[in-house]
Design a protein that fits this description.
This protein has five helices and no strands. It is an all-alpha fold. The chain has one domain. It is globular and about 70 Å long. This is Protein RER1.
Amino acid sequence: MEADGAAASFPLAKWRSDFSRAFQYYLDKSTPHSTGRWIGTVGVAAIYSLRVYFVQGFYIVTYGLGIYLLNLLIGFLSPLVDPEIEVSDGPALPTKGSDEFRPFVRRLPEFKFWYSITKAFCVAFVMTFFSVFDVPVFWPILLCYWVVLFLLTMKRQIVHMIKYKYVPFNIGKQKYGAKKGPGNSNLSKD
């Protein structure tokens, strides 16, 4: 009898393993395409927003999603090693002008940030199909509370950025103009 249960679970385990392997393959392939990934996440967020709007409910789920996204954002904007809390032997933020440059290393890397946000929207979307999660609440109060929480949290994060002089955003590779020398003259000859 136990052999029948093991034989029946083997195809399920094989399917799960194959699915996990294929999912990881496509996830790895999407890594360098950050713009496309974020456009997909915006699409998933729009679908979730439309679902909540048309159902006119699940505000508690949306509030929980907002708190989770705020937590992810703080992790994304924070350095890996916080100079206020930890002393590290590895790379840390420079605290004085004479310190050498060290690149900003995030506590939550961009890919994990994107993946967690996308997964959160998908889970919240699935939750909107179960009425047990549709708790009746007065949503403007939740929205006001979330906005106040967001503003206070961002103020604290910005003060931390100013205090330790770091910017968590990378605008891209710095571009330089053409080198101007004796042979390179941009003056037009009339």
